[in-house]
Amino acid sequence: MVDPLSEVITLLRPRAVFTKGISGAGRWGVRYSDFGHPSFCVVIEGSCRLAVEGQDALILEAGDFVLLPTTPGFTLSGFEPFSPELIDPRITPSPEGEIRHGTRDGPASVRLLGGYFIFDSDDAGLLASLLPIQVHVRGVERLAVLVRLLTEEANEQHAGREFVLARLVEVLLIEALRLTQQPDAPAGLLRGLGDVRLVEAIRLMHGDPARSWTMAQLASKAALSRSGFFDRFTRNVGVPPMEYLLAWRMAIAKDLLRRQGLPIAEIAERVGYGSASTFSTAFSRHVGQPPGRYANAMEQSAAR
């Protein structure tokens, strides 16, 4: 059975860049500016407050896991009044050892493992458009174990390190996201996959992107009228069905152009276009440049 969430994560090729222990004590608070890359943390012990821009503040407790797919600005703090220390993660150098906020000596009131990763694909916007701003999971030991394994692997230089890190990050992402795959999730792919009527249509689009799907065919698979399917899909996933299908086809096409060097005619066929010219027109309209120029730009970028 096709798993759309796993396909999206695999296509994006996430890899760990930074993992670090974080602790706080006494009167403390830090304000991070917008970062853009996905970040995560798990609370090892104690508690703290997290306030992400545009989201309700969270009280984080031991065992909590938080994923920020695009990491907007946020404040992490204790519970006493504070003047926040301002941090720009794009320019602040990574310190050695654990990051300590507030009182330097004595026991910490909270200890976390945190980090971020990047995507080897340039389709990070695809994930951001399909996921909530903030994913909060409470009390799932599997996630804590995965983060600890990720941190240990990142801090060592064992043979096969990069392969293991890549797989751990993929598993961590999928584990965290599928736990929020519910009908009451914010609009996006997770909410769509949590809808029993929509999930089969989404699987079909992912499983056979080359097929000339129509709204009527997809609505039939969802056991809905065309208008009912359109409204339900748009409300739950956040974009209309055919717009979602186009975005997925173009994501596949870009990946094929970057990775495999296939003829444009073959790529066109794989993503549902009857001719290279029709595909090139659609690709140019969606991406902003013809497929050949895109492939050349990606090749030059990889060679740097």
General description of the model:
- This protein is of the alpha+beta class and 304 residues long.
- It folds into three domains: 175 residues, Regulatory protein AraC (Jelly Rolls, Sandwich); 51 residues, no CATH class; 61 residues, Orthogonal Bundle (Arc Repressor Mutant, subunit A).
- 43% of the residues lie in helices and 20% in strands.
- It is built from twelve helices and ten strands.
- Strands 1, 2, 3, 4, 5, 6, 7, 8, 9 and 10 form a ten-stranded mixed sheet that branches.
- Helix 10 packs across helix 11.
Full CATH superfamily name of the largest domain? Regulatory protein AraC
Please give the CATH architecture of the largest domain: Sandwich
Treating each run of at least 4 consecutive H or I residues as one helix, how many helices? 12
Beta strands, count: 10
Could you say what the CATH topology of the largest domain is called? Jelly Rolls
Q: Helix fraction?
A: 40-55%
- Stretches where pLDDT is under 50 for at least 5 consecutive residues are none
Q: What's the alpha carbon Rg, rounded to whole Å?
A: 21 Å
**How much of the residues is beta strand, in percent?**
15-25%
User: From N to C, what is the helix and strand string?
Assistant: HEEEEEEEEEHEHHHHHHHHHH
Derived structural class: alpha+beta
Shape: globular
Q: What is the CA-CA span between the terminal residues?
A: 39 Å
Largest sheet: 10 strands, mixed
| CATH level 1 name of the largest domain | Mainly Beta
Total domain modules: 3
Average pLDDT number: 86
